[in-house]
Amino acid sequence: DAGVTQSPTHLIKTRGQHVTLRCSPISGHKSVSWYQQVLGQGPQFIFQYYEKEERGRGNFPDRFSARQFPNYSSELNVNALLLGDSALYLCASSTLQGSEQYFGPGTRLTVT
Amino acid sequence: GQQLNQSPQSMFIQEGEDVSMNCTSSSIFNTWLWYKQDPGEGPVLLIALYKAGELTSNGRLTAQFGITRKDSFLNISASIPSDVGIYFCAGQSLNAGNNRKLIWGLGTSLAVNP
Question: Splitting chain A (112 residues) into consecutive groups of 10 residues, what average pLDDT does each group show?
Fold first, then answer.
């Protein structure tokens, strides 16, 4: 069975640009969460979506937005990129009732 | 952002030795999770704990959910070279609206000398 998939694997953008990251959850999982992981730190929660609705939001600016589609895949959008947005962006899927979150390989975003 | 206190920060051990790491929080959690992350990859779930006092094993790994619900530890017995990586604890509480966000420790970096 396929695990969580994310695309692209790597991305290089310049300041001020926008970026869209994509995630497909494990088959049967209806919840997707997004995390940002800066080098040397643990992941920081950005969003959680379930059944296309936002269920939680972390302490990130409005430049960050996300959505979930009917097939439960999800997109994370970041506008007006800053150098500090450079990080590994992780997507995790879970059942709503399940507490276990399973992670994809991440998208490495570099902002220059 | 909010993070858990995880220690030690790093460990360098000989192959065959046992390893112990722990995580503490000022908040109560309903669930404790332990993950391992290799460089450039996503975290892989090792053990999930759901009840205070619970002791769970996964092969050479054993983890416990603290009685106070504010701490957890992970033990690795008879370490091998492939245990190298960064180990993260993560706590989860069920908030209003079924938000199940994870709060993470800063990680324990493990190096194993063959």
Answer: 91 98 95 93 91 90 97 97 97 82 96 98
Residue B104 pairs with which residues in a beta bridge? B90
* B36-68 residue pLDDT tens: 999 889 999 999 999 999 999 999 999 999 999
> How far, in Å, CA of B58 to CA of B45, rounded?
11
A48/B100 CB distance under 8 A: yes
Q: How far apart are CA A92 and CA A105, in angstroms?
A: 10
Which residue in A35, A41, A96 is closest to B106 by CB distance?
A41
Instruction: Using alpha carbons only, give the angle B75, A93, A108 rounded to the nearest 5 degrees.
Output: 85
Q: Choosing among B30, B98, B102, which should be mutated to test the A contact, i.e. which has the most A CBs within 10 A?
A: B102
CB B19 within 8 A of CB B79: yes
> In this structure, are residues B91 and B27 in contact, taking their beta carbons and an 8 Å threshold?
yes
| φ and ψ at residue B101, rounded to 5 degrees | -70, 150
